[in-house]
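Sorry to interrupt, but I need a hand with the structure work. Can you supply me with one protein entry, sequence and fold together? No commentary is needed, just the two lines. Leave the record below and I will have a look.
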Amino acid sequence: MQPVKRALKERLTQTLKRGKSVLLLGPRQTGKTTLTREYKADLEISLLISKIRRQYEADPDQLIREVQALKSNKSSLPLVILDEVQKVPALMDGVQYLIDQGVAQFILTGSSARKLLHNKNVNFLPGRLIQLRLDPFTLEELSSPFPSIEDFLLYGSLPAIRLETDNHIREEELDSYVDLYLEDEVRAEALVRDIGAFENFLRLAAIESGNIVNFDKISQDIGVARTTIAAYYQILEDCLIAERIEPYIESQSRKKLTKSPKYLFFDLGLRRLAAEEQPFLPEKYLGNLFEQFVGLELIRWARLQNLKTSIHFWRDSSGPEIDWLLNRNQSLLPIEVKWTDNPSSRDAKHLELFLREYPSATKGYVVCQVSRPQILSEGIEAISWRDLIQKLSTWG
């Protein structure tokens, strides 16, 4: 496969041209370092290297002195890249000082927002940094013909996995990713006291990915408090491992809309290894994974849009539900996901109901495996997952 041009690069480039500094967040191995190396930095510091990390932990102001020296020898503003900045949060004060003084421009990368967002002693530089998010490959970034949908469901979309053709190597890479996450992000940062309970939680959370979360059930299964389960999910969010999806609960008539969230693991290959599942799954599981795949594509697409777009689901406990719902300026686009290549009008019934009840939704899609688009009913079209991004570009 040819090198992939990242869709986020244009926005990152334009942000830097406006003179802004950037906080580039993204899970491990999504390509942050590869992307930032496409920019000519005057100073690049990787805080993953323990010797360098200890140096700046002992003397955070060293960064100020080094950057001031750079500026004194340059007529233009130096570009400084700090890789995995959450490893030394104390550097954020120096970064703010240098930005405020007009001494340098920064690209900060991070694979965990926990120490940056939840530490009251950390300066998160409100208004000074533009926050961007780098995800695994999207369909928009991959060239056709695409791999089979089963390949995406089993192995996910992390760059190293997509660019590797040997499934044995892919399996090893994903397995080591799970171990690395537990070792580096949980043990090293002392995020939990009982690592055994957390490992059990991680497996169950991976199995339950894409379902409406039941904190009480998981609490009973693992034998820890409900509040602990909620805290564990917060760790997954902060470490960018899980996506929290809120339900859409606005309605003029329905009183029983689900208010509990869903969580999606950010990558389906990682989800499978965390769930301790083999690289072959029964047919009955593929529909649920296909729904998660579409949800992840929608999340990644929404992050790349100039207009804020949020992703939800909609479910009435009495039966009707919509798998995914896009909301942009109160304009709604409902999407159902079906594991079929032969959709029928029955697959559109919940979409028809939703369009009747929500006038701000004028059309809907059934995402499935059809070879060509089909009209199922007025305003509702069945489309292939391969055409999803193209169809979204015409919305609104």
Observations:
- The first helix runs from residue 8 to 17.
